[in-house]
Amino acid sequence: xxxxxxxxxxxxxxxxxxxxxxxxxxxxxxxxxxxxxxxxxxxxxxxxxxxxxxxxxxxxxxxxxxxxxxxxxxxxxxxxxxxxxxxxxxxxxxxxxxxxxxxxxxxxxxxxxxxxxxxxxxxxxxxxxxxxxxxxxxxxxxxxxxxxxxxxxxxxxxxxxxxxxxxxxxxxxxxxxxxxxxxxxxxxxxxxxxxxxxxxxxxxxxxxxxxxxxxxxxxxxxxxxxxxxxxxxxxxxxxxxxxxxxxxxxxxxxxxxxxxxxxxxxxxxxxxxxxxxxxxxxxxxxxxxxxxxxxxxxxxxxxxxxxxxxxxxxxxxxxxxxxxxxxxxxxxxxxxxxxxxxxxxxxxxxxxx
Length: 353
Description:
Belongs to the membrane fusion protein (MFP) (TC 8.A.1) family. Helices cover 28% and strands 38% of the residues. It is an alpha+beta fold and 353 residues long. Among the domains are: 44-55 and 279-351, conserved putative lor/sdh protein from methanococcus maripaludis s2 fold; 103-164, Helix Hairpins; 197-275, Elongation Factor Tu (Ef-tu), domain 3 (Beta Barrel). It has a six-stranded antiparallel β-barrel with strand order 3-10-13-12-11-14. Helix 2 packs antiparallel against helix 3 (138-164). The chain is elongated, with a radius of gyration of 45 Å.
């Protein structure tokens, strides 16, 4: 009998504890449900603090150095090369003889032209004297004079041929490549030497159409050379193409003095300084993505005391993904940058970040 009573009491206690636990769980669940309900009423948004900043509007463009001058020096006449005076890497001046062509046959032609000239001079003198006494007609005298002029012209022509047997540098520079050896037979137009002038180099870059109006001829441009990071260079804009390419980029050339450590073909970056002074200093900006229905609308949501407020601002210049605000904000406000598509004026919000 006593054992039965004990079992009944234990069972009653267990039932009581179970009922208490169930009641406590229900109370906790109700509390959690209320908290969730509060959060469901709020819309999640991302915000940024409105601040003043200095905008860097510098524009960079990559390119490679090319020689200021380069040319393939060729022969003016056909013939066999007798001697070559320069090697690859040699520095030469404009007009310097690089190689010579055999001129034996030309010298024979020169002697013949000189003989013809002497005969023409003697004949013409005889005709001049005979004309004075009426021994020849005016036409005969004129023919004699013409023969003399032709003989003189032939001498000058042979002189040009003799001069052309010396192949001379057309520009000052360095022999980058030699394509001829003594004994080679050449013809007019055959490239014999490649000459490059790298005392001054040109950096050739492409500038986007949005930036081309911000640069000008003569502007000094800082240059960064990839393989010479410790050295500083600068150049002057000497050419801005009047027409863009198919990608709406404009070819621009910058002349850079060579201190001896630059080579044609090196990769470099030109930094175009396009800052507008006070116009880009200490200005109020917001991300372009914050605007409702685009920047042109001028509408933004700011968060005040957990509530979204739709405001109207006056915008200024656009700097990439940032927009200048001229009025409507003072700085320090929290502007919604994402989630605004779900917002109405006065909606409760939950700031995610």
